[in-house]
Amino acid sequence: MNKSVDLFIIGAGVAGGAVAKVARRAGWSVAMAEVDGLGGTCPLRGCEPKKVLWQAAETIWRAAGARKNGLIDTQPRIDWPALMRFKRSFTEPVDASVDQSLHDLGVDVVRGQAEFLAEDRLTVGDREFQASHIFIGTGATPMRLPFEGAQLVTTSDGFLELDELPGSIVFIGGGYISFEFAHIAARCGVFCKIIQRGERALKLFDRDMAELVVAATRDLGVEVVIGEEVTDVQREGDRLRVHVGPERRRLCDCEMVVHGAGRAPNLDGLNLDRAGVERAKRGVRVDAHFRSVSNPRVWSAGDCADTPFQLTPVADMEAWTAAQNMVHGKEITVDYSAVPSVTFTLPPLASVGLTEEQARKKGLEMDVFSGDMSGWSSSRRVGVGRAGYKLLVDKSTDRILGAHLFGHKAEEVINALALAMGHGLTARQLKTFPLAYPTGIYELRYML
Ligand SMILES: Cc1cc2nc3c(=O)[nH]c(=O)nc-3n(C[C@H](O)[C@H](O)[C@H](O)COP(=O)(O)OP(=O)(O)OC[C@H]3O[C@@H](n4cnc5c(N)ncnc54)[C@H](O)[C@@H]3O)c2cc1C
Ligand SMILES: NC(=O)c1ccc[n+]([C@@H]2O[C@H](COP(=O)([O-])OP(=O)(O)OC[C@H]3O[C@@H](n4cnc5c(N)ncnc54)[C@H](O)[C@@H]3O)[C@@H](O)[C@H]2O)c1
Q1: Could you tell me the CATH superfamily of domain 3-43+83-141+264-328?
Q2: pTM of the model
Q3: Which of 41, 159, 317, 339 for mutating ligand 1's site (highest number of atoms within 8 Å of CB)?
Q4: Residue with CA at minimum distance from ligand 1 atom 31
């Protein structure tokens, strides 16, 4: 069956959903293909289910802190199967609820894998579409691991569906996923090891803060191995053997190996060549307005586009911007200078703007305010052992260039700093504005 539409959207995730809204409100006819659950990674197998697990682990963390402070004498335990059932009470309704909103919006939802036939034509199963505009919002998937035993490695999707936890887990890679999952699993009694190649873990974060997180993670009993690259995984009876380095040296055995080695744009199988859509390693090549550089009918944003971050709010912001340009003929761009990001460890690691290294490379004249927060009452109240901050302030404008926090409530405080950066507030304004006390955000005045 053939159908012509103003816009065909590939992928019903955050980015696809944002574009659909703008286009339908402008009266465009819109069809949208989705090969998996509607809603995409974030609500089904990413941020949302992870946060449910994290919140449960936070209870254990809080209890450990209270025990350390001599306030309680028991340590609670997570009932993992119950936690999984609880998690599913969040994830299972998502598909039907997104389906309903897309239906109410007037989007023609097509279940199945979309593939290009030509520059303006696509198929999904036995349906064929001709579209004046096409939006690619296919997200990312765990990147292919270049070794034989890769099929033995559990992905983040698999981890978030585990009915039972194993006794030991090795995480490949020391980025967001490994640290977040290890902080959860370790608090459920799993022995965890994180293996990171190169000279440091959490590379997207400020070096000093990342070191603090590694130290706190080791305090928790998680082994963090830096400078080793996982090059093979093999089955040995009922265990898995992890090898590292070019010579495939045996490093350790464990019950499960989890993929935290990065995510790649989900573009294979789309037949981009047939549509003349150029791609780079990081995704569809787009101009500053999110239009394909090689096929003007095609637009792309979110995790599958060659843009700087793989984060939900960024996918949303980029896709909304792409839609304004595509539907309303605007020429707007995205400002990435104040994008906050959090690694949900316990306590969390949060960051916005430039790291100290990046600011120094740019030759910026700045004041660096940094310190240890472990002795502050906010840390002592919850028994935090390690906590720190670093704020970079431009000497000439007094504006925040970057902010990096590791501590209680960092995941919330960082948003105040992002707002301050985005709206050009000065350090003095932040320091003197009367904020509610005693709160995490109030403590900004002690940092500056
Ligand atoms: C474990 C985990 C935790 C995360 N935690 C956070 C967090 O705490 N905070 C945060 O900001 N970000 C987090 N992220 C990242 C966040 O989930 C992504 O940045 C965000 O979902 C990207 O949105 P998107 O719309 O670009 O892609 P997606 O949400 O991945 O949507 C793409 C959709 O396209 C579909 N699709 C792909 N190919 C086709 C095809 N050929 N035909 C039809 N449909 C197709 C997919 O099935 C998917 O539904 C996390 C990611 C993971 C994996
Ligand atoms: N809280 C959040 O916002 C959140 C949470 C999870 C994921 N995400 C998004 O998903 C993306 C992917 O997350 P991720 O944790 O998989 O990737 P990541 O990019 O954060 O970290 C991957 C790390 O694995 C290392 N690595 C790769 N192959 C290796 C090997 N064979 N041996 C040892 N180390 C290896 C890389 O050098 C890199 O440092 C993130 O970049 C982020 O944008 C965000």
Answers
A1: FAD/NAD(P)-binding domain (3.50.50.60)
A2: 0.98
A3: 41
A4: 13
